[in-house]
Specification:
Blueprint (H helix, E strand, L loop, with lengths): L2 H35 L5 H28 L5 H5 L17 H22 L6 H23 L22 H19 L20 H20 L8 H33 L4 H16 L7 H24 L8 H19 L5 H29 L6 H6 L1 H6 L13
Helix pairs in contact: 1-2, 1-4, 1-7, 2-4, 2-5, 4-5, 4-6, 5-6, 5-12, 6-11, 6-12, 7-8, 7-9, 8-9, 8-10, 9-10, 9-11, 10-11, 11-12
Length: about 425
C-alpha cells in the first residue's frame, strides 16, 4: 500500500464525509423553508416532522434500505456495524471508506423524505406521516434506487443503465421520487380548508415567516454543493478535482438562473416581485441541474436553471387550478422540474438518450407513486391521515405536539 494511495484514500474519504455533512445540513434548510411557508399555528408540528423524519430515515436505511439498494437485500450494515472490515476499506481500487458511502447515501434518502413533509403540511397527522416515512425510507426509495444507482434490473426485465438512463445526483432518483410520494399523499389527503372556493377561485394562504423561508433556501443552496459535488465521489486527483470544480460552478449558476427566471416571470404575470416564487425558482434551478451538473458549460447551466425557474411558476399555478394543494410548492419544484432535469441530460451528455431518460423517469414515478398511494390508502383506512376540521382550524401544533412555536404569553402564579 503506497503512501500516495493512503493520502488519496484519506482525502477522498474526508471529502465524501464533508459533502455528506453539507447534505445533512439541507435537513435544516427544508425545516426552515417549510416552517416559513406555513402558518404560525402549524410551525411546531412541521419542525417536529422534519427532525423526526431525518432520524427515521437514518435508522430505516441502516436496518434494510442500504442493503436493498446496494447489497441485494443484505443486512450486513445492521447486523455487523457500519465500520467497514478493513480489508475492503483500505485496499485498491477502493478510494474511500465504505462507511463514508453509507453516510452519504443515508442523507440522500432523508432528503427525498423531506420533500414529502412540505406538501402535506397543515392538515396531516404527525404519526401517520412518520409511519409512511418508515416505508418510504426503508423500502420504496431503496427499491427504485437499486434499479438506478444500484444497477439492478427492474423486476428482472431491464436495466435502466443499458437503456441510456443517467441521473448524476438525483433529479429523478431523489427529487422526483420524493415528489411522487408527496403527490400520492396530497391526492388522498385533500386540500386545506379554505384554500379553494366553491367557484374555483384560489385563495392565497400566506406563510408566517418569509425571513425564515429565505434562510432555508440559502441553506439548501449551500447544501446542494455537497449534494452534487459529493456525487463526483472523489477529489484527490487533478481529474476529479477539476470535475468537482465544474459541478460546483454549474450548481451555483443554475440556482442563480432559476431564481432570475422565476422572478422575472412573476413580475410579468403578477406585476410584483414575488419572493416565494423567487425562492422556489432558485430551488427549481438546483433540481434541474442535479441530473447532470458535470457536462454543461456555465452558460448552459444558467439556461437550464432558468428553464426550471420558469417552469416551476407555471407548474405551481397549474396545480392550484387542479386543486392540488401543496403549501410549499414541493411537487412542482422537485417533481415537475425533476423530470425536466432528467430530460435535459442528453443535451450535454452523449452517454444518455431521451428514450432512456423517459423510461427511467416513468419507472421511478410509477413505482414510487403507485406503492405510496397503497401505503397512504392503508394508513387512511386504519389510523387516518388527516386531523379533524377543528384541529386544523386551531392549528396542528396544539393538536399534535401540545405546544405552540410562537406563544404570545405564558402566565404563571407563584
Amino acid at each position: 500500500m503506497t503512501d500516495v494511495f493512503q493520502l488519496q484514500y484519506a482525502l477522498d474519504t474526508f471529502y465524501f464525509l464533508m459533502c455528506g455533512a453539507l447534505v445533512m445540513w439541507m435537513a435544516a434548510g427544508f425545516a426552515m423553508l417549510e416552517a416559513g411557508l406555513v402558518r404560525s399555528k402549524n410551525t411546531t408540528e412541521i419542525l417536529t416532522k422534519n427532525i423526526a423524519l431525518y432520524a427515521v430515515a437514518c435508522t430505516m436505511y441502516m436496518i434494510c434500505g442500504y442493503g436493498i439498494m446496494y447489497g441485494g437485500g443484505s443486512f450486513d450494515y445492521f447486523l455487523s456495524g457500519i465500520t467497514g472490515d478493513g480489508a475492503t476499506g483500505v485496499e485498491e481500487p477502493a478510494t474511500y471508506a465504505p462507511s463514508a458511502d453509507f453516510y452519504f447515501q443515508v442523507v440522500f434518502v432523508a432528503t427525498a423524505m423531506s420533500i414529502v413533509s412540505g406538501s402535506v403540511a397543515e392538515r396531516m397527522k404527525l404519526w401517520a406521516f412518520l409511519a409512511f416515512a418508515v416505508v418510504m425510507t426503508g423500502f420504496i426509495y431503496p427499491m427504485e434506487g437499486s434499479w438506478t444507482w444500484g444497477g439492478a434490473s427492474v423486476f428482472g426485465m431491464y436495466t435502466l443503465g443499458d437503456l441510456g438512463f443517467s441521473d448524476f445526483a438525483g433529479s429523478g432518483i431523489v427529487h422526483m421520487a420524493g415528489a411522487s410520494a408527496a403527490l400520492a399523499g396530497v391526492l388522498l389527503l385533500g386540500a386545506r380548508k379554505g384554500k379553494y372556493g366553491p367557484n374555483g377561485q384560489v385563495n392565497a394562504i400566506p406563510g408566517a415567516n418569509l425571513p425564515m423561508a429565505t434562510l432555508g433556501t440559502f441553506i439548501l443552496w449551500l447544501g446542494w454543493f455537497g449534494f452534487n459535488g459529493g456525487s463526483v465521489l472523489a477529489t484527490a486527483s487533478v481529474e476529479s478535482a477539476n470535475a468537482v470544480a465544474v459541478v460546483f460552478m454549474n450548481t451555483n449558476a443554475a440556482a442563480a438562473g432559476g431564481l432570475i427566471g422565476a422572478l422575472l416571470l412573476a413580475r410579468l404575470l403578477f406585476g410584483k416581485a414575488d419572493l416565494t416564487m423567487a425562492l422556489n425558482g432558485a430551488l427549481a434551478g438546483l433540481v434541474a441541474i442535479t441530473a447532470e451538473p458535470s457536462t454543461p458549460t456555465a452558460l448552459q447551466a444558467t439556461l437550464f436553471g432558468a428553464a426550471g425557474g420558469v417552469l416551476v411558476v407555471f407548474s405551481i399555478l397549474a396545480l392550484d387550478k387542479l386543486k392540488l394543494d401543496d403549501p410549499v410548492g414541493a411537487i412542482s419544484v422537485h417533481g415537475v422540474v425533476g423530470l425536466l432535469g432528467l430530460m435535459l441530460v442528453p443535451v450535454t451528455n452523449d452517454a444518455s438518450s431521451f428514450s432512456g431518460q423517459l423510461i427511467g423517469a416513468a419507472t421511478i414515478f410509477v413505482w414510487v407513486f403507485g406503492v405510496s398511494a397503497i401505503v397512504w390508502g392503508i394508513l387512511k383506512a386504519t389510523m387516518g391521515i388527516r386531523v379533524s376540521e377543528e384541529e386544523e382550524f386551531s392549528g396542528v401544533d396544539i393538536a399534535e405536539c401540545g405546544m405552540e412555536a410562537y406563544p404570545e404569553f405564558v402566565s404563571s402564579r407563584g
